[in-house]
Specification:
Elements (H helix, E strand, L loop, with lengths): L2 H20 L22 E5 L5 E6 L5 E3 L20 H6 L5 E2 L8 H4 L2 E2 L1 H4 L10 E3 L2 H10 L6 H5 L27 E2 L5 E2 L4 E9 L4 E8 L6 E6 L8 E3 L1
Length: 243
């Protein structure tokens, strides 16, 4: 059983209940990330664009690295090649190459949560991050969580404040880092969607074995940043940092 299944199982009926009630819930575009969601002054910050011209905000974290504070939302590699959008669940389950989708295949999720990518897109040598940027590694996430006090408390310092996008009670969310992590949910290796507003799950480029790669995830119900490995066919959010 991969990590995506374990997450769902560990939270059991709580997730089944909320996903079934909120599966058609639309993200509020009136509450996109602004400085009002950050409870510490922004010091070094700016914007950067991807190959399509999408503009992302970034800021320097306590690890001294500049991270984008929005999820990646690009549909082309840096050389201009298209990253296929795959909606069909059976096709998604068979993939061994890069692909993306919107949560529930609904484009209204894109402006807030970005796109969900399988790991093959994340690891493609053509590059999914904007020029001069890269997808975070397992070690990048470790350094970030360490400087925020460790995995048990860093989640609260990374999560966007409030319940505009996170399910209440969004335990411990203070966003003192300015990272403004969002609960974009995910798509399983079987092609089904779950956990939007419950979990924010982020790929790293770090490989675990032939079938799995490392991820980090944050939950509405605690302040942890959990490290685990996951089926490469799953679809998750992506954050990048400056090279």
């Amino acid at each position: 059983m991969n990590c995506f299944s374990k997450i769902t199982f560990c939270f059991g009926l709580l997730f089944v209940f909320f996903v079934s009630c909120d599966k058609n819930k639309k993200p509020s575009q009136n509450s996109l990330i602004t400085t009002e969601n950050v409870s510490t002054p922004i010091q070094k910050s700016g914007t950067a664009s991807d190959v399509e011209g999408n503009v992302y905000r970034y800021m320097e974290m306590c690890d001294g690295k500049e991270w984008m504070i929005e999820n990646l939302n690009v549909s082309h590699y840096n050389n201009g090649d298209e990253i296929p959008q795959v909606q069909d669940p059976q096709e998604w389950a068979k993939l061994k190459t890069g692909a993306w989708c919107y949560y529930l295949n609904d484009s209204s999720y894109g402006p807030v949560f970005g796109k969900l990518y399988n790991w093959y897109a994340v690891n493609d040598p053509r590059g999914i991050a904007p020029q001069g940027w890269r997808v975070a590694t397992k070690e990048d996430w470790k350094q970030l969580t360490d400087c925020l006090g460790g995995e048990n408390v860093a989640g609260g310092k990374l999560k966007q404040i409030g319940s505009s996008h996170w399910m209440s009670p969004n335990v411990g969310a203070v966003n003192t880092s300015g990272f403004s992590a969002l609960p974009g949910g995910g798509r399983s290796s079987k092609g089904d969607f779950t956990m939007v507003d419950n979990l924010g799950v982020f790929w790293t480029t770090t490989n675990h074995d032939e079938l799995q790669a490392w991820i980090r995830h944050l939950s509405y119900s605690n302040t942890y940043v959990v490290e685990f490995y996951n089926d490469k066919r799953n679809g998750f959010s992506v954050r990048v940092l400056k090279e």
